[in-house]
Specification:
Length: about 475
């Protein structure tokens, strides 16, 4: 949590309260000594919670070991004093993310339509000194939109030809996996600004720069998320809805149903396994179980000690699975002033530090404050990481003022969250396979090894990198274990 210091978060001038105490002390004390269970689940993000909950419903004895002192993983909600909430991690849900909607309903949660009270702002592709205003209709045209449309169509067409279960069987898989998305853009898109905007949009899926992800992995992600419209549209796409109360409370409700099965503050260091089962070691507790579901990001799964070692493909693939990089910025204002100007708070800028923004306001009955979210993606996050926080904040607010007017300069609150410095995440939104790794390691990314199952959003072939994908991966592992009896 970069600049969201404990002082700021827990009081002392801030209106935000992280978790609002819902993580609760009930399961906070790790039990000591050796425990036994049918299944040991590692990680209490959405994947681990979904796996554990479905297994518990099927009558299995489950123990969940979670490194942090809270559940939710990359879902973390700060409740605002006086009403409203801010999601520092995942916040949106949209059509075809059926498993997330189902879990929200099952836990008694509610969604609301993301605020959309005007036009979006985008840096002009032809005259980069100007910003243009865009309606939400996909038929909107603007200078350079023909080039953007052609780029979108080419990516979508390639994505449609990919089997999300087996991207490596595409006839040109090897060549496409060798070619970075940046190379593909240079070969297929003549306009530099269109390449810049396309790179920004790509960044918003995996938070990889176009130079570090292959066009095969990129097209796979697009295919697994049902195409670019489903990914990027606010109405009908992945940003369509938000959750009343934020995303973390749903994870907390699942955790409440699991009760004392969850052990917080229990980082898993080592797994000793054989075909008969495994013993999972944390600092103060070890769990002997018939099956283990590892629900942590792949690079962290690779950092656990295994005895004996998994096959070399599994060991190697976790070394080619970095997390992306994005800093999520939250600015809280007395009111959503941009709406008065006919703007919906959405913006895209392929030259600026803040690549994208969104109005993250909550329904008025909870709070009338203006909540603006900004994303500093990959290259820009790297470039600005060394700046003093105050300098970066000044830069961000100046960019907001350029897009939305001078009121942007005076937020009541300003917070940044950099997940790359969080020990138990180390980057976001998600991980991605580096060029060559998809064709080299194929299904090693998710093939079970003896009693060990690999879940987590990165392993899902439907909505990978989203909460929906995390839930699906956990439910899939639970189903595989149930099928074994
Ligand atoms: C800034 C940001 C914005 C996002 N926006 C959206 C969005 O709008 N919509 C959406 O659907 N998704 C979004 N995502 C992605 C979404 O949050 C993730 O895909 C999802 O939460 C991942 O869930 P998971 O269970 O797979 O992994 P995680 O949430 O990472 O859970 C893994 C858990 O394992 C724990 N752990 C790690 N190592 C160990 C260990 N050795 N021992 C024990 N425990 C361990 C971690 O503490 C963590 O709790 C966003 C993510 C971020 C960070």
């Amino acid at each position: 949590m970069a600049k969201v210091s404990r002082r700021l978060v827990l009081g002392g001038g801030s209106a935000l309260l992280v978790g609002a105490g819902l993580d609760g002390p009930a399961h906070a004390a790790p039990m000591r000594g050796r425990q036994t269970a049918d299944v040991c689940v590692i990680g209490a993000g959405y994947a681990g919670l979904a796996a554990a909950y479905r297994l518990k419903q099927a009558g299995a004895k489950v123990i969940v070991l979670e490194a942090r002192n809270r559940v939710g993983g990359r879902s973390l909600t700060a409740q605002m004093k006086g009403g409203g909430w801010v999601d520092y991690g995942g916040q949106w849900v949209g059509p075809t993310q059926d498993r997330f909607y189902a879990l929200i309903k099952e836990m008694g949660g509610e969604t609301y339509a993301s605020p959309d009270f005007g036009k979006a702002v985008q840096r002009d592709l032809i005259n980069p000194k100007e910003f243009i205003r865009l309606g939400s209709e996909v038929t909107d045209t603007y200078p350079g939109s023909d080039m953007m449309d052609a780029m979108f169509t080419a990516v979508d067409d390639l994505a449609k030809a990919i089997d999300p279960e087996k991207p490596w069987v595409h006839p040109d898989a090897a060549a496409l996996d060798r070619m970075t998305f940046a190379e593909w853009l240079r070969a297929n898109v003549s306009n530099e600004n269109v390449r810049g905007l396309a790179g920004n949009l790509v960044a918003s899926v995996a938070c990889a720069s176009p130079e570090e992800i292959s066009i095969l992995q990129m097209a796979y992600l697009v295919r697994a998320c049902n195409g670019l419209d489903k990914l990027f549209a606010s109405d009908g796409g992945a940003q369509q809805d938000r959750l009343i109360g934020g995303t973390q409370p749903i994870a907390q409700k699942v955790a409440q149903k699991l009760g004392s099965a969850i052990r917080l503050g229990a980082p898993v260091r080592k797994i000793k396994w054989s075909d008969k089962g495994a013993v999972v070691f944390s600092d103060e507790i070890s769990v002997a179980a018939r099956h283990v579901v590892v629900c942590v990001p792949p690079h962290l799964a690779g950092a656990i000690e295994y005895d004996p070692s998994p096959p070399s493909d599994r060991v190697q693939v976790t070394q080619r699975w970095p997390q992306g990089l994005v800093v999520k910025v939250q600015m809280v204002y007395a009111e959503p002033y941009w709406r008065e100007a006919g703007l919906n708070g959405a913006s895209l800028d392929y030259q600026a530090v803040v690549g994208e923004t969104a109005d993250s306001g909550v329904p008025e009955q909870y709070s009338k404050k203006g909540i603006m979210t900004g994303f500093i993606y990959s290259e820009q996050a790297r470039k600005t990481a060394s700046l003093a926080p105050a300098e970066r904040q000044k830069m961000v607010l100046a960019e907001m003022a350029e897009r939305f007017g001078p009121k942007a300069l005076n937020p009541l609150e300003y917070h940044e969250m950099n997940w790359s410095t969080q020990q138990w995440t180390r980057g976001c939104f998600t991980g991605f396979l580096t060029p060559g790794a998809t064709t080299m390691f194929r299904s090693a990314v998710r093939d079970p090894v003896g009693p060990l199952y690999w879940a987590g959003t990165e392993t899902s072939t439907v909505w990978p990198s989203f909460i929906d994908g995390a839930i699906r991966s956990g439910e899939l592992a639970a189903g595989q274990i149930k099928a074994k009896g």
